[in-house]
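SUBJECT: protein chain
CONTENTS: sequence, structure tokens:
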Amino acid sequence: MPIFAWTIFLSAFLLFMVQPIIAKQILPWFGGAPAVWNSCMIFFQTLLLAGYAYSEWSTRKLSPRRQALLHCTLLIISLAFLPIIASLDWKPLANEDPVWRILSLLTATIGLPYFLLASTGPLIQSCYVRCHGGDGVYRLFALSNFGSLLALLAFPLAIESVLNTHLQAVTWSVAYGVFMVLCGASVLLAASPRAVHGVSPEESDITAPPSLGAQSLWLTLSALGTVMLMSVTNHITQNIASIPLLWLAPLTLYLCSFIVSFEGRYQRWQFLWPLLLLLPAMAWGLQADNGILSIEIAIPLYCAGLFVACTFFHGELAAKKPSPQHLARFYLMVSLGGALGGIFVGVVAPRIFSAYYELPIVLMAGGLVTMFLLYQSAKKPDVAQADTPPVTSNETLSAGITPSLHRSVMVVAALYATVTTGWYLYQYETDYLGRRTLRMERNFFGALRVQDNKVGSERVRNFVHGVILHGQQSLNPEHRQNPTTYFTQTSGIGRTFKGLDGAAPLRVGVIGLGAGTLASYGRRHDVMRFYEINPQVIDVAHKQFSFLADSAGATEVVLGDARLSMAREPAQRYDILVVDAFSSDSIPIHLITLEAIDVFLKHVKPDGVMAFHVTNRYLDLKSVLALLAQARGLTALSIYDDGSSSPLAYSSSWVLLAKNPEVLKKIPLEGEPEKINIPEGLKVWTDDFSNVFEVLKL
């Protein structure tokens, strides 16, 4: 038992750990385009499914000895992939579609090791059955999810803060070597004659293969859990709070639901009533308080709903697991369901929906599936999960409630919960999403909304991405070209334009377009060159806002990741380079590393200024930029504006970096410059090392 348990635990740990390690290596090469993340997701999902299919095929078609020989051979061949460090030869060429290069890079760097790790769970559990019989075999799946959970928490909380990406890859490769030894020993042990003949006659009897209906239900329950996870994660991180690493909470709860279910601790009656209460409550939360439910209510509500729903789905999945002889097929369908759910949310939904409709869909689907399972229980109570806490027959009869009546009540309750959920979702669609919304679109970068509102007596148009305001423009013709929000004349960037407002025309680069607000600073003969990665943002800025069209200066827009675009183009000789690329309330990491600063410096004049917008509720990015400035011999200036200059002004923080310190003396300030405190022990961020935990505002 111990060798099988350790093999499964270590494989799950390494499987979860390799994904952020390799993604962090290649992100600076390919930028933040959705093709990068979609390609990675497709690769990992495809190989996970292929690993489960290989395990099912080899268990069903090969003798234990042949299976062990094949697997050991593949393990030895996988040594050629170590250490898992991406070759520089895979860096993309200019204007090249990155998808196939990313898929090829991942295949060449981690392909076979990832495939073998993916196949380990069902393969080693089959080995366990040969040696020890079927008792307790499904508990190893719970152990696998515990290993995944530990890796999930260990990477951001410990490993990332201690090891750079190169040492992460080397350490992972050493651990993979240990896994190889354990896995090889496990399959050889299961192939020994004594192990093969060690199964009891009862367990060796051939049972009927699972029906198509049973397999379809496995797939459906698995897919529902995945869709619930991804849709709730999208909702709480995009529409409720853009807190760094908030995505850890739902994924942790999702893995815990597997552990509870496959450890044998799931009982339907413990989760059914909470589920029937939380499904409509989550639907209510989508449209409550004008669609902006307070964080204190929303995050606990959706995290609790996610855990209860996933535990219900996975608990029902565990209750319907087949005999150990068919566990490989069971895990194949579970994997296929997870893959289909992931593809639906990650690939299909952004293409066909204008908002995050997958959460309403999975809430309704959850209610319908619950009704189906209860109806199935009513028809076959002898094989159903217990719907009530265990009581004696006398207690049941004295209360006047028969099992049949109770199941009928539960079906009615599930119907009521489903209808209530549907009603709130109708309110969400017609009242919240439809009210005052001029445009609503979604792609792989998230959901965008353009809405008309009022601020005091001023009619304004807002450009919103999740909970982040990307731009605001007054609809009053007299104020239409006034810069607003974080870019007013008293803000750090406003003061920068004023300080460098000489006779010569300015050449300005801006990373992040938003509504195009900064174009309002353009004068005649000035050039404002914007870098924007999201094509929908460009379209919105041109069609729903007039900053670009009304600018006195010339405006240019470059589509693509700013760092990659700037690395490929000749020096632009900017007087001002603005970095305003918001992503979940923070600048993307690959834009505030030492290598990024080097790319930016190539395009800034010796007397030019780099202006970083670092307004952030959760991260202290000023200290990161101050360290980067020290590393490159630059001068840093921090400017805070309290946003009191105008009703349309927001409080903002900016950090200016310059080669020539005399340039920063031209910037008009009110009072003394803001001092930047650098925490003790903070390291310079590079493409090889960054740690968000070091700069959290606690």
User: Anything to note?
Assistant: Residues 98-132 form the longest helix (35 residues).
